[in-house]
């Protein structure tokens, strides 16, 4: 008996076909010796046909035959899910209780923030126990009988498709989740609680609403009952109107900013850019009235994401944000003419005091910086 092979079709123009025992020359230069008895020799090796051994015999697990062992596995799985729930609750407690400034010293790592350690450990334990519980559940209770599905072409007959649905239904039943309510409820609790840290991180870590934190700056607070003078940054020296020549640009902070409780926070909100232009170039009447002799002052905080806007182009009077190229027209109340920013830069109303120094008559009339929930 000879063995037949299926493969790509060959076009052999030779009239002689090899007989049993003869050597057939392959198209790729390989030799195949047909021994005529179910054996083939090729490449110096003797190959013998063998029957398909099929699937190995199913080995029953302890839980398959012993209900007590199955219940014990069920309790173990539920215990792992319960530990996950406890770890998730500890994550929430740590997020609320552990201070952001607390430091702990860990071996091989050294000093690190206690909040990061507590959140990492509790979240890791929560996820690990869910994974271990699922693996133990699959290994001890779910059906592990191997099933072979013969490959078919194109669409299966309707009865086969219905049979597949039935197989999936039976497979779901074989997980025993409907018969093991303890696992079902503990898994639901573990997965349900595991969503809490994700939502807490997503929503809670956004921080509190700004309320009036961006609407009130140091410019709003009078100094000795008077408006604060405009001070050069970083020299911290006052600016006279006579110092501001045509085309000049000053980076400005309010007078007395170094004396407040959190000067860095105050500087972030109160930073101002002072520019001198021809009065005839200013198109907006409000802008002209809030300035003096073509000298105008605007917030440096971009209304897109809060980058410092400090690139002034004298010829076009355009103000450019270096982060995302938002461009503002300083001749028309700093309206946005390009880029992702959606709002104008807030203007600071200025005047000159009796000593000839530039002062702020009032604070910004709208919050500085990017959008937030209370300010679309």
Automatic annotation (TrEMBL):
Q: Which sequence ranges are marked TM in the entry?
A: 77-97, 117-138, 185-204
Record-linked InterPro entries: QcrA_N, Rieske_2Fe-2S, Rieske_2Fe-2S_sf, Rieske_Fe-S_prot
Q: Quote the CDD domains the UniProt record gives.
A: Rieske
GO CC field: plasma membrane
Give a yes or no for keyword Secreted in this entry. no
Report biased composition (Basic and acidic residues) as residue ranges.
8-19
What GO MF annotations does this protein's record show? 2 iron, 2 sulfur cluster binding; metal ion binding; monooxygenase activity; oxidoreductase activity, acting on paired donors, with incorporation or reduction of molecular oxygen
What's the protein's topology in the membrane? Multi-pass membrane protein
Q: Where is this region: Disordered?
A: 1-38
Compartment annotation: Cell membrane
The reply on keyword NAD is no
Which residue numbers delimit the Rieske domain? 290-359
Keyword terms, alphabetized = 2Fe-2S, Cell membrane, Disulfide bond, Electron transport, Iron, Iron-sulfur, Membrane, Metal-binding, Oxidoreductase, Respiratory chain, Transmembrane, Transmembrane helix, Transport
The record's annotation in PROSITE patterns points to: RIESKE (PS51296)
Tell me, in a sentence or two, what this protein's role is: Iron-sulfur subunit of the cytochrome bc1 complex, an essential component of the respiratory electron transport chain required for ATP synthesis. The bc1 complex catalyzes the oxidation of menaquinol and the reduction of cytochrome c in the respiratory chain. The bc1 complex operates through a Q-cycle mechanism that couples electron transfer to generation of the proton gradient that drives ATP synthesis.
Similarity comment: Belongs to the Rieske iron-sulfur protein family.
**Protein's name according to its UniProt entry:** Cytochrome bc1 complex Rieske iron-sulfur subunit
The record lists the organism as Allobranchiibius huperziae
């Amino acid at each position: 008996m000879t063995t037949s092979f299926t493969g790509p079709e060959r076009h052999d123009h030779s009239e002689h076909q090899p007989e049993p025992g003869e050597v057939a020359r392959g198209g790729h230069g390989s030799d195949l010796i047909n021994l005529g008895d179910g054996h083939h020799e090729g490449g110096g090796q003797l190959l013998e046909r063998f029957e398909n051994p099929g699937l190995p015999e199913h080995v029953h697990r302890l839980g398959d035959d012993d209900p007590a062992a199955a219940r014990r596995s069920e309790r173990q799985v539920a215990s792992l899910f319960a530990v996950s729930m406890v770890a998730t609750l500890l994550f929430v407690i740590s997020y609320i209780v552990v201070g952001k400034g607390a430091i702990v010293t860990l071996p091989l790592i050294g000093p690190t923030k206690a909040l990061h350690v507590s959140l990492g450990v509790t979240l890791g334990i929560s996820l690990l126990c869910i994974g271990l519980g699922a693996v133990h559940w699959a290994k001890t209770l779910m059906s592990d009988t191997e099933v072979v599905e013969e490959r078919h072409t194109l669409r299966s007959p309707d009865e086969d498709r219905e049979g597949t649905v039935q197989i999936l239904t039976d497979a779901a039943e074989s997980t025993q989740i409907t018969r093991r309510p303890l696992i079902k409820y503990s898994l639901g609790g573990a997965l349900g609680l595991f969503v809490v840290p994700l939502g807490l991180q997503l929503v809670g870590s956004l921080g509190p609403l700004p309320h009036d934190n961006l609407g009130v700056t140091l410019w709003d607070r009078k100094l000795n009952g008077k408006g604060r003078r405009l001070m050069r940054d970083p020299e911290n020296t006052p600016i006279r109107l006579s110092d501001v020549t045509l085309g000049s640009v000053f980076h400005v902070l309010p007078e007395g900013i170094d004396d407040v409780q959190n000067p860095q926070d105050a500087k972030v909100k109160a930073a101002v850019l002072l520019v001198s232009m021809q009065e005839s170039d200013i198109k907006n009447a409000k802008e002209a009235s809030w300035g003096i002799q073509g000298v105008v002052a605007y917030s440096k905080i971009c209304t897109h994401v809060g980058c410092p806007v400090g690139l002034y182009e004298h010829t076009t009077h355009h103000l450019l944000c270096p982060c995302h190229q938002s461009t503002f027209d300083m001749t028309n109340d700093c309206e946005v003419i390009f880029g992702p920013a959606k709002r104008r830069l807030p203007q600071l109303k200025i005047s000159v005091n009796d000593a000839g120094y530039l002062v702020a008559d009032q604070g910004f009339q709208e919050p500085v910086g990017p959008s937030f929930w209370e300010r679309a």
